[in-house]
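Entry 14. Structure prediction run on the chain below.
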Amino acid sequence: MSAGTSERRVLDEAGGVRAMTWVMAIMVFLTMLAAALGLATAGAARSLDRNLAGKLTVQVIAGDAAARDATAAGIARALRTLPGVRRADVVDRAAMTRLLAPWLGSDGADPDLPVPAMIDVELDDRADGAATGAAVETAVRARSASARVDRHAAWMSPVGGFMRTLTALAAGVVALMASATAVVVVLAVRAGLDAHRATIEVMHMLGSTDVQVARLFQRRIAIDAAFGGACGGVAAVAMLAVLGTQASGLGSELLGQVALGPLDWVAIAILPFAFVVLGMAAARVSVTRALGRTL
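Output returned:
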């Protein structure tokens, strides 16, 4: 009995094995989406940390506009002399008007509107952020008791924490999908063994070994998994392309950072092949163990 003929007779009529094609397609589709979510949010969290690390904003509040602007200019000059401070610039009124436009509209340009003076501070990457931040606060308090120092990383930390939680959740989903796929392969292989037990016994009497029978199941699972993985992979890539286009069209700076890099795409592209290898390994182990116990 040739390998091809044996494979068809033993496996083609097993409904559980044939269903592996569609099961694998669904598993690969969901796994690739979960992996893309995890990789994209992890990259966005790293980008957010880089962008916010060492960024401070100083607010100078005063009723007298001239006194407020003079105080802000003095604080900016003092901050530039501190070691570890790369840049300290007073935000001009035109920029403040643009920032307030979504809430105040044209009223934000009213010169009588009491708007705090803002100083954009950037720390040196090589400096100790905590120590330099404390020095900035001390210098600001020495010149204005009402001024306030806001650390960007502090008020955006919940967002970063949420992104890291999503990354961990996505990794857990990928692991669960892989485990579920292995279980489904084992169940499908056992269904094939039960459906063709008599044929397998004849193959054993003709000299076939457990390893040879396992190879038949392994080869068929590989074919079904490869076809299903290809279908699921194409569908997942199409879905990711649609989601990426919609996210970029929103114009959100934060959502714009939730994107996949070249290495992320490589990792996602490997998943269908990894599922084929997983299915083959699960089939081989399941068959050899089952035949060793029963035949």
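The chain has two domains: 3-49+157-294, 62-146.
Filed with the rest of this week's runs.
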